[in-house]
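[09:14] KT: can someone run the structure on this one? pasting the chain below
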Amino acid sequence: MSYPHLLAPITIGNLELRNRVVMGSMHTGLEDSRRDLAALAAYFAERARGGVGLIVTGGYAPNKRGWLKPFASELTTRLQSMRHREITGAVHDEGGAIALQVLHAGRYGYHPLSVSASNKKSPITPFRPRALSTNGVDQTATDFAETVALAVKAGYDAVEIMGSEGYLINQFLAARTNDRNDAWGGTAERRMRFPLEVVRRSRDLVGADFPIVYRISLLDLVEGGQTWDEVVTLAHQLEEAGVTVLNTGIGWHEARVPTIITQVPRGAWRSATARLKAEVSIPVCASNRINTPELAEEILAAGEADLVSMARPLLADAFFVEKAATSRADEINTCIACNQACLDHVFKNRKASCLVNPRACRETTLVLGPTKRAATVAVVGAGPAGLATAVSAAERGFAVTLFEKSEALGGQFRLAMAVPGKEEFAETLRYFTRRLEVLGVEVRLRTEATAGDLASYDEVVVATGVVGRVPDLDGIDHPSVVSYADVLTGVVVPGKRVAVVGAGGIGVDVSHFLTHDPADDLDDWMAHWGVGDPGVHPGGLTERKPRTPIREVTLLQRKTTPIGVDLGKTSGWAHRAVLKQSGVVQVNGVTYDRVDDEGLHYSVDGTPHVLAVDHVVLCAGQESVRDLYDELGGGAHLIGGADVAAELDAKRAIEQGTRLVAAL
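[09:31] RB: done, structure tokens below
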């Protein structure tokens, strides 16, 4: 497929972009230390080499009170701007363009120096901000502009002013966080003054043609958010003040609506972007949950946007654009929006990477260069660990044979992609399958490798995965007791009343699978989360429509901690919300007694209970499959679930396989 709109050049201000693909801003943690400048430059350079039209950096604060965390990224001095030339030079050497994002965290700052429009504390940080004085607001607007000017000195081709996602500028715009009664608040018009001053002062310092992108919040998705009329008025005034491009942002970090995780349907927010584009004459950039060139092309061809921002998709595959441009879109390593190695890492104060591409942000340390020795590699098991190993080894030039005893590739990933909202996992299997074909890996399906089969290989990697753990429970052989694998593959279709034993990530996923109505579409998804017409509902937020679960599900666990507490930091809350919305009964501190014709017998605090159900689904953890490894007597590499059976950790499995190959 060709992508004539996506790959067409566009001029913004004095900058001609080679295509319409914008790599959206992502804070990776590499921005926060001088020691990581070379790594950050290499990370951006690889994306520029991959053909991206415009790269946007992670956010840099215009002053210390705007830090995301103590001693986080800032651009406030000429010396700092000179150091940034290592980044801009690396991108320019690869024919790319790069913009610096200027971001003031406001009350989202995870430090005691934080300030905001008012002193209202954020629900996602422990620190209460100090309300800026009238003069303090004025000085902060000037600080923004001076950072923009420093970006020019640093060699950046454009800047992006962060005005969405609930950061400082957004905090000034919303009545929710701005209760001032001076010149910077009190009315919608005065709340808009701060971003407008930031843009005007920036434009005065950089001249008429330098591209200024403004990230505008289309839907705040919080109570007390902006009305649609206010968003449109702001857009018109930003255009008059000198903004070159409007990039779109959806939702605050504290919103009760998920906006980018995998359970958000692809292209969910494109209609809001189209609505804004109809109001302004400057280019508009679509963003959020756009992860394929086909969808990006469709949005542009429909006239809904002029550019498309894809952040995490460029983490997943640095050569996304090049592959689309050379008729190799089927080789794109698609972002599955899991957040596990990117946002989850950042919000835990770790450096970002990518579950499906562990080289992301590690371009200088995790190198898969050509091998200097001719060697044969056998990989046993075609789950995530085995697939990553086989592909990485073949990319290095090893002769690879992949053994898989089942009739299909994927292992536990095949189960994950059956879960509603995790359909994207199928893209990872599509990617690996295609790479195996392109690289000429010999794939032997329906083949259970033996020690004898492997004797002639120079390197043997055992990635035989896991099996579901069968608990020691009276009545475990009762016909109502089934495995999560049989449920997710459709071998067993459970009845109307189901008990799910084990409330880790798999138990939560299975509960979602069992209650989800497959007839639900995008409109239903919006209704269940309470996303309404922003022209009617301020911030785009309205009452949630109750879900109608197709089964009665009870989710039980032995632990006394709340169910789902160990799920992903930036997505777990949404999974827990779905359980609640779907009426899943949650019971913790359980002792399992037996299963019989009456149902599941269990006790809580010594009190016996009987749960009358049609089926009991076992999600009680996993056990490693390592018989072959033991038979080989240690003469092989052991990775993935076969090494450590800890839930279903594809992030660890893929990274482990990739690192193993890099060291061969």
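[09:33] KT: thanks! The first strand starts at residue 10 and ends at 12.
[09:34] RB: yep, looked fine to me
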